[in-house]
Amino acid sequence: VGSSGEEGVIVKATQGTGYVNENFAFVAQQLTNSNIPWGIYHYAGGGDVNAEADYFIQSVQRYLNGSNPPNLILDWEKYQNSAYKNGVWAETFLKRLKDKTGIQGGIYGNSDDLSQMTQWVVDNAWVWFAGYP
């Protein structure tokens, strides 16, 4: 990572409560030792929100206190997300993330995805907008 001129990297860590990206630890370790801005995301599965947040936190915790800490992101999309259209789920996830890590997470989605968010998410979370030409 970093040898091809990347200006930033975002890597998927987890999805639901049963998936960890097999390449996540390798990429994350390289990024913690770099000066490249980076982020880690959890793909919402829509199950028990606290269990999903805790699963994500457990998977990323070791990378949060280094000299190059990542941004944390909730990926909010329709596919394989049984809580889709429930913005309170996303709010609860982001609040738990903040409470347990001290980091205000962001949210990823397109205009349809983001239109579901509660006012708390709008006021507190930063946005990684999925907009494609």
TrEMBL record:
GO terms for biological process: carbohydrate catabolic process; cell wall macromolecule catabolic process; peptidoglycan catabolic process. This is Lysozyme. Signal peptide: none annotated. PROSITE patterns: GLYCOSYL_HYDROL_F25_2. GO terms for molecular function: lysozyme activity. It comes from the Bacteria. Belongs to the glycosyl hydrolase 25 family.
